[in-house]
Amino acid sequence: MNILITGAAGYIGSHVAKQIIEYTDYNLTIIDNLSTGKKETILALQNILKNKESGTQKMEFIKEDLCNFKAIEKIFADGGFDALIHFAASIVVPESVLNPLKYYMNNTLNTINIVNLCNKYDVGKMVFSSTAAVYGEPKTIPVNEDAHLAPINPYGWSKLMSEQVICDTAKANKNFKYIIFRYFNVAGADLENRIGQSFPNATHLIKVAAQTAIGKRKQIAIYGNNYNTKDGTCVRDYIHVDDLAFAHIMGLEYLKEFDSDIFNVGYGKGYSVKEVIDTMKTVSGVDFKVIYEDRRAGDPAQLVSDNRKIINAYAKLKRFGLKKMFPRLFRYDNLELICKTALAWEKNYSL
Ligand SMILES: NC(=O)c1ccc[n+]([C@@H]2O[C@H](COP(=O)([O-])OP(=O)(O)OC[C@H]3O[C@@H](n4cnc5c(N)ncnc54)[C@H](O)[C@@H]3O)[C@@H](O)[C@H]2O)c1
After folding, report:
1. What is the per-residue pLDDT for 319?
2. Domain definitions of the chain by residue range
3. Mean pLDDT of 235-251
4. Which protein residue's CA is at the shortest distance from atom 35 of ligand 1?
5. What is the model's pTM?
6. Is 75 in the pocket of ligand 1 (CB under 6 A)?
7. 3-class DSSP state of 308
8. CATH homologous superfamily for 2-187+238-267+306-330?
């Protein structure tokens, strides 16, 4: 298979590209404008491919912006792609409130364009990165895929609109199938410390805690300690990036056998902000400074996935005999391990 991946110089896309190299012989073409992604990440992927024993697999990197529709169309026209995995997006929620059009253009408009190109150039499979932000403030925890969709910020809306475009297009074109993954909180890094979250201003709690533990930041803030949760701080579902990445490999295989679908990807387990910070303190051995600030607008008290649907899908696939299988879909469901890998990456990474 020839796979096109957008945004694979970034955090999650690079872990998926790594696993495509490790677990398949699919050829990869990566498009990224390096706005938050890094050239070093592409070099690390090229090294992983070089060190792989089987020699026929290819990876090409094209530095391009998805908003350059002409250039992107040429890549589709020349590529002969069988599948698209679309990660490239803007992802900072508060920024989306201040600058919504950036999100509607970079996320929604560019997705419309590439879905259109998939149809025009017969790319029959698409895997799309969506987010738990499409649920807004869910009424029931854990939240399942049929829950009411009510984003509370432009980032969430930009992703929900993209989902709608993909679903409607697939209804009209039977040769176009999709998997939409709604990620919960993604954290950690490659266990061999070759790639990780490389954007220094990232706002993810575990990354920020790791940065604070090694002195890249002076302190970490907890926003709100009077939520109706176990210790008053917000509860989230943290998934190791390599487990999330493997779900994408599964998604590609799933589409060979089954119809389009939407899956939550999380462990179905909630940890409070305070528990996460305490775990980072334990694994780093550093009692770093924590301050308390007011709640941030639009932070739901709890966001935990109901992940039964994706676990059942994996079991269904197993019966069809996917080649590279693991006994469990989620292998790294361990907060200490997630924090350790995030910390190791932060120490390794110079920015
Ligand atoms: N990180 C999370 O916790 C999380 C949670 C839910 C959903 N997601 C989704 O996962 C996807 C990947 O997120 P990430 O954390 O890896 O972010 P990231 O910023 O590390 O990666 C995004 C990549 O896309 C590239 N990019 C952005 N706009 C582009 C454009 N116009 N043209 C070409 N390349 C462009 C960036 O340079 C970067 O390499 C996003 O779609 C995001 O919405 C992430």
Report:
1. 74
2. 2-187+238-267+306-330
3. 97
4. 88
5. 0.97
6. no
7. helix
8. NAD(P)-binding Rossmann-like Domain (3.40.50.720)
